[in-house]
Amino acid sequence: MSHFSPDLQSRIKGYLGRYETKRSSLLPILHAIQDDHDWISEEDILALEAEFGLSAVDTREVLTFYTMYRQQPPKPYRFEICKSISCWLMGASDTLKTVKERIQKAEEEGRPLPFEVHAVECLGQCGYAPATLINKDRHNCVTPQKALELLEQYAKQPLPPAALQCEKMMKECGSK
């Protein structure tokens, strides 16, 4: 039995057939796994090697080089705030501070929010600074007030499918 769902297996095979070498297909394969599982586990790495012949060493090299890949289960929503010069000049540091404080306050009050927050490099939206991503959703001109509104909006939504899959996998493994 495969570690990966039939749909994910099909996508992985498609990427393997699209590139000249197996190693060249690692980036899109890892994106597909992360989209499906919400992170990339050691079991995923070993399954890639066993099922598709992708070297675990090569896979770990890619995972540790690129910051876009998660090697631990994340919170359901990743609030990423651009810290590049345009966003910084337009107040990204205030937005980042506000989001961190709101998340920390909620945790201290015993009502943790489904968010983690990160400062990231350029999101390519300099004309709409400060730019943010929440998972893969872009938000522009995010002032501290707008950030708080986004936190409230996303906290009310159903959790993303990948987060639910991640939670299910963690329970099955006895984690959490």
What does this structure look like?
By secondary structure, this protein is of the alpha+beta class. The chain has two domains: 92 residues, Arc Repressor Mutant, subunit A; 81 residues, Glutaredoxin, CATH 3.40.30. 53% of the residues lie in helices and 10% in strands. Strands 2-1-3-4 form a four-stranded mixed β-sheet. The radius of gyration is 18 Å and the shape is globular. The relative contact order is 0.13. The mean pLDDT is 91.
Radius of gyration: 18 Å
Mean pLDDT: 91
**CATH level 4 superfamily of the largest domain:** NADH-quinone oxidoreductase subunit E
Please give the alpha-carbon distance between the first and last residues: 25 Å
Strand arrangement within the widest β-sheet reads 2-1-3-4
Main sheet summary: 4 strands, mixed
Give the helix/strand class. Answer: alpha+beta
- The number of distinct helices, counting runs of at least 4 residues, comes to 8
CATH architect. name of the largest domain: Orthogonal Bundle
Topology pattern, helix = H, strand = E: HHHHEHHEEEHH
Number of domains: 2
The residue ranges in which pLDDT falls below 50 over 5 or more consecutive positions are: none
Helix content: 40-55%
β-strand number? 4
Overall body shape: globular
- CATH overall fold name of the largest domain: Arc Repressor Mutant, subunit A
CATH class of the largest domain: Mainly Alpha
The amount of beta strand, in percent, is 5-15%
